[in-house]
Amino acid sequence: PPADPDFGPWDGRPWDAVGPAAVDAWCADFAAHRPGGGEPVAALMARCTAFLREHPDALVVGHGGWINAASRVVRGQPPPASAAEWPPACRYATAWRASSSRGAESQ
């Protein structure tokens, strides 16, 4: 389902409470690392792929993490090797359309 990634005990905590060493470890292996013991970005993207295949015309209201992952999926991009490849957070109340023929676009 279109849910944000599981950050385990990191969820809801400010970044400074997580600690720089933990964040740096995640950023060093962004696609495969399990932040806070939760879900790696590669698994989030696999969920997005499965959902979009099953529901190609769905209207999804979601959080930024899922939307960013879905955006990469419809553009044919692999999971990012580094955090620098992850798109910036989308703005609140952004409409976004995924199309098998046109890719992804903001509205």
Strand order in the largest sheet: 1-2
Compute the number of helices: 4
**H/E element string?**
HHHHEE
Number of strands: 2
Helix-strand category: mainly alpha
From the alpha carbons, calculate the radius of gyration and give it in angstroms.
Answer: 14 Å
Can you offer a commentary on this structure?
By secondary structure, the protein is mainly alpha-helical. It has helices spanning 15-18, 20-28, 41-54, 64-74, and strands spanning 96-99, 103-106. Strands 1-2 form a two-stranded antiparallel sheet. The relative contact order is 0.17. The model has no long low-confidence stretch (mean pLDDT 85).
Write the layout of secondary structure elements.
Elements: H1 15-18, H2 20-28, H3 41-54, H4 64-74, E1 96-99, E2 103-106
Helix pairs in contact: 3-4
Q: Keywords for this structure?
A:
about 110 residues; 2 strands; mainly alpha
